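Following up on my earlier message about S-adenosyl-L-homocysteine. Here are the inputs again, as you asked, copied directly from the submission form:
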Amino acid sequence: MTFQDELAVTLALEDNSLPALAEAEKISLVGSTRAELGAAFLSLGVPEREIKMRTAQLWHWLYFQGATSFDVMLNIGKGLRGRLAETFSLTRPEVIAEQVSQDGTRKWLLRFPPTSADANPGGHGAEVECVYIPESDRGTLCVSSQVGCTLTCSFCHTGTQKLVRNLSTREIVAQIIVARERLGDFPGLTPPTDGLLPGAENRAVSNIVFMGMGEPLYNFDAVRDAVGVLSDGDGLGISKRRITVSTAGVVPQIARLGAEASPMLAISLHAVRDDLRDKLVPLNKKYPLKDLLDACRDYPGLSNARRITFEYVMLKGVNDSAAEARELVRLLKGIPAKINLIPFNPWPGAAYECSDWERIEAFSDIVFNAGYASPVRTPRGRDILAACGQLKSETEKLRARARMVAEG
Ligand code: SAH
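Thanks, got it. Here's what our run produced:
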């Protein structure tokens, strides 16, 4: 449901002859675009000529200050604040589970309020995962763009989960708001002093990667608008050079992403031949390697300082030979590229194993000697199952177990 539809439903509910809206019936403005905030003010009867100014005020409170209540927004008159609070809320998604790894990685399972887009009306809302990975020079938040995923990449656990829907722009941005709040990134909030976060003068969340659940380019409009909200200098202020959208290769949308949002691009490559990539990333049958790499070459703004990241998951005996490393180098010739080797993260029932460490090193050496920095992504948060799709499924397993116990 679009913001406008939701607004229409809420306004219809809000009839003066009826009792005031319950908190849960109000629309949360957290994660809204400027256009959505403008529509919200218009719906309250704010005159057209004031919309831009009011939107700018609310924007600052939402995204710069991280306000959790309309009461603190003192530059918005008391009357208008009151009307805002009657129809709208600043409710964040609920944190269902939080895990902190030994290495500082944090993983949250977030639950959104139910919307009509959910398959189980009356049940609880959609749940997604969000992972925070602190490093010495940055803090990266990995966000989800969909609940579940329609791609069926054979090594990825998310593809085995049934429920699928797109997240709205608000639901995507809300993941960053929750993380910033939890990590003390908004003014006035003190970060937890566990020594695992970057210094207080730095923001904990400096980088965003769309590498959680879902295929971002199958949810194009919401992802594009979320990049707009995140990178807005008057609010969250995360530079587009620090926002990376990762795709399995939805070729026609790559040019659009470049034209309409221009974040950094990552490609889940994983294989250097079409026959193998067809099996690992079935989307390859629709958009084969040649088309994918052509789209990469045309991505706007590429330079040595602005490279495409190619992700390559290391699968034992499947895609990890020296010949494949050399072919990878050949394929990427002429594209400003970074190569990210990812040790396969096993999950119960997976048909693959992670390559042996010597293989990964040998592969990495070939890539490195060809002139690419080829960091092997260190497995992070192993102790909290921070790999794709795993927190959610663990939580579901625990719930199923609890049900079984309850039912005897
Ligand atoms: N759909 C998008 C983004 C989500 S996946 C995409 O395909 O890029 C983020 C990255 O994690 C992708 O490179 C994906 O291939 C990789 N990945 C998925 N499952 C994995 C696993 N079990 N081990 C290691 N990497 C995995």
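One observation from looking it over: Residues 153, 155-157, 211, 215, 246-248, 268, 311, 313, 342, 344-345, 347, 387-388 surround S-adenosyl-L-homocysteine (CB under 6 Å). Hope that helps, and feel free to reply on this thread.
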